[in-house]
Design goal:
single chain; alpha/beta; TIM Barrel; 11-stranded mixed beta sheet; 3-stranded antiparallel beta sheet; binds iron/sulfur cluster
Length: 450
């Protein structure tokens, strides 16, 4: 049986952070109805910044054993040396003040020094978290990584990765693979497992299949992350570098010949999760660097036990978690070390009405089935990331206080756009081909002063 939210399903009123909205978004022949709009005043704006951010992004290789459609990286340089990587870790420790280092790539598990890298990060008092597609996961390596101090994994599994053993698979078809990976990590113990997937216009309607599966495995799945797909289309767009010269953006992995579907937005993902899991409410956000109305990161967490979700944590709890962690540990918080939080989360009920609702639902469940009193209360986090959106002037609306900044050539840059630095020496503007041609025609031969 698909295991969704079993037993009591709390019937929650529309949360204050979700307000009624209206329009329709058309994707090809499908029509997505946007019913809810997020209200920034009801959410906590995460206090992260460039120099004080819980996440530092470390890329140790650009070699991978899969070819995901939504990938931002291509193979240009191969594995970095252990010496280079140690220097980058020390740079990130100094300039990011991170709580965790996200070890990324490429596929980090295929780097020959992965265990030493994890150990070096842990020695710095920082939580190492590996971002992997899971293909190279195996019990012996897992035990070595755990011994080296690994905190956990964010495992990327979705239906556009070209996994040879899953041709034509849907998101639901991949749940057994997710389960296999999560069980393998849980068997070794002491590490968290979060799953992320890229959301394409064609897979938007499959989000509930992943959410219901995640809810049924609160014991081994500590979080779900949905990243909305973005790509540039070379038939209608072209790139301009920092010296105003046109460049060939087809060299980037995030450019394709043509793409005319409507990109999925973060608030739409919130709506999809909320529709299949009414107990879910978002609690915190990061806005955009250009647009006042964008939601680039949307964070939240549900509270439950035994496959039953009681409710969510609200903005107040997020605020206390961030401020408290910074007060006592001097860093902000992105990943919990401890997947089982216990009933202490309900101590926030007097100040957080979202937690209050969850506590009431838990009490009702305990009255109905007293053995629930002794079941561990677990948190499952929900992250939604809306990748960079190109604006009419060619600039991209990025995540304000980007949590995924990485080291490149002596500076911090947005990791999602590193290939623009590697291939073209800096960030590009992506502009409309037709508009650029019209502007060029308007300039008289010999330049504007001729
Ligand atoms: S701007 Fe930063 S956080 Fe946002 S998608 Fe890019 S790398 Fe990730």
């Amino acid at each position: 049986m698909p295991m969704g939210v079993r037993g009591m399903r709390p019937r929650l009123p529309a949360p204050p952070s979700l307000q009624q909205s209206s329009p329709y978004v058309t994707i090809g022949l499908l029509v997505r109805e946007v019913k809810v709009a997020l209200d920034k005043r009801q959410l906590y704006r995460l206090p992260w910044s460039m120099n004080d951010n819980p996440i530092a992004w470390l890329e140790i290789t650009d070699i991978c054993n899969l070819h995901c459609e939504g990938c931002y990286r291509q193979r240009l340089t191969g594995h970095k040396t252990l010496e280079e990587i140690r220097e980058e870790i020390l740079f990130l420790k100094r300039w990011r003040n991170p709580d965790n280092v996200s070890i990324a790539g490429g596929e980090p598990l295929i780097h020959p020094d992965i265990v030493e890298i994890v150990a070096f990060i842990a020695e710095q008092g920082i939580k190492p978290v590996i971002l992997s597609n899971g293909v190279a996961l195996e019990p012996l390596l897992l035990r070595e990584l755990k011994g080296a101090g690994l905190s956990g994994f964010t495992l990327h599994v979705d239906s556009h990765q070209g996994r040879a053993e899953f041709p034509g698979a849907s998101e639901a078809d991949l749940n057994p693979l997710r389960e296999q990976y999560a069980a393998m990590v849980a068997d070794v113990g002491g590490m968290i497992t979060v799953f992320n997937s890229t959301v394409y216009p064609s897979t938007y309607r499959e989000i509930p299949d992943v959410v219901r599966w995640g809810n049924a495995h609160l014991d081994i799945v500590q979080g779900l992350v949905f990243i909305t797909y973005r790509i540039a289309a070379t038939d209608s767009q072209t790139g301009v570098d920092t010296t105003a010269h046109e460049v060939d953006i087809s060299k980037l992995s995030y450019a394709t010949e043509s793409f005319d579907e409507e990109f999925v937005t973060g608030p739409e993902v919130v709506q999809s999760i909320h529709e299949c899991l009414p107990a879910y409410e978002p609690a915190a956000y990061l806005g955009g660097t250009l647009r006042h109305d964008s939601f680039k990161w949307i964070a939240g967490a549900v509270v439950g036990s035994d496959g039953e979700v009681y409710g969510s944590v609200g903005a107040r709890t997020m605020e206390v978690a961030q401020a408290g962690h910074h007060f006592f540990r001097r860093t902000y918080l992105a990943y919990l070390n401890q997947p089982t939080i216990g009933a202490k989360v309900f101590l926030m009920a007097p100040w957080d009405r979202t937690v209050r609702r969850a506590a009431k639902n838990w009490l009702r469940a305990v009255i109905k089935s007293p053995k629930r009193l002794f079941r561990p209360i677990r948190l499952q986090s929900y992250g939604i990331i809306q990748a960079p959106d190109i604006q009419a002037d060619g600039r991209a609306d990025m995540c304000d206080s980007c949590p995924d900044m990485t080291y490149y050539d002596g500076k911090l840059i947005n990791s999602c756009r590193m290939d623009e630095y590697r291939l073209f020496g800096g960030l590009l503007s992506v502009v409309d081909r037709a508009k650029m041609a019209t502007e060029r025609e308007a300039v008289p031969e010999g330049g504007p002063e001729a």
